[in-house]
Specification:
The chain is α+β, with helices and mostly antiparallel strands and 237 residues long. It is built from four helices and 13 strands.
Length: 237
């Protein structure tokens, strides 16, 4: 059952749900949305600028022994978000997923996600640029409004929560396979040049060559070999 709670302001919806999870109070299906965050966080320790008008929300998934690997929830969230955005941008030919869970429009970042775990609960935070987008030095950004779609955060989250519940059910009932295939169908084309920044500070550049069976990014390197990436930050080269 989906429950949506809304607060005017908080530090981070992810931090709030992690605290609830630590206390055993984060039930599955709960979504927490903030009109504004003062300490929003993205992947790899980045700050997430959170002015009013965009969607900032987190949800909890309570893991079961028979579930696929928890890390693959990133793909569940990604395909659900892609589906929700297409409700409001049905003609967005340039909409594409970028590993592991960014959503781009014409190469510009529309959203971000952060997955964190507390015991057997995974908290998934999703930020979507609805009304406006930040000006970042290292990557292009965009918003739904910049593409002519006007949608309120509450309406968008209702759509997203419905999509997420449906894909979560498939993940549990059918495994990663259908989610992986949908992700590939919605991703940038095979052969797209990518640069991956690795956790150790190094980088790898290659051509997108799909995903392996557990969701790792596959890059075809210049020497013809394949490199599998399980963690890192990926940019269009």
């Amino acid at each position: 059952m989906t429950t949506i709670r809304v607060v005017a302001e908080t530090g981070s919806t992810n931090a709030d749900l992690l605290a609830l999870a630590g206390a055993g109070l984060a039930s599955e299906g709960l979504w927490l949305r903030a009109e504004r965050q003062t300490a929003g966080r993205g992947r790899l320790g980045r700050a997430w600028v959170s002015p009013p008008g965009n969607c900032y929300a987190s949800t909890a998934v309570c893991l079961r022994p028979t579930d696929p690997p928890a890390s693959t929830l990133a793909f569940v969230a990604a395909v659900a978000l892609d589906e929700a955005v297409r409700v409001y941008l049905p003609q967005a030919a340039g909409l594409a997923l970028k590993w592991p869970n960014d959503l781009l429009v014409d190469g510009a970042k529309l959203s971000g996600m952060l997955l964190e775990r507390a015991g057997d609960t995974v908290v998934i935070g999703i930020g979507v640029n609805l009304a406006h987008h930040p000006d970042l030095a290292d990557r292009a950004t965009t918003s739904l409004a910049a593409h002519g779609a006007q949608v309120a955060p509450d309406a968008f989250l209702e759509t997203l929560a419905e999509c997420f519940a449906r894909w979560l059910g498939r993940w549990r009932g059918e495994g990663l396979g259908p989610i992986r295939q949908c992700w590939l169908d919605r991703a940038h084309p095979l052969g797209t040049a990518l640069t991956a920044r690795l956790p150790d500070g190094g980088s790898v550049t290659g051509l997108f060559d799909g995903l392996d069976s557990d969701g790792a990014l596959l890059l075809r390197l210049a020497d013809g070999t394949r490199h599998a990436m399980h963690a890192g930050d990926v940019l269009l080269a």
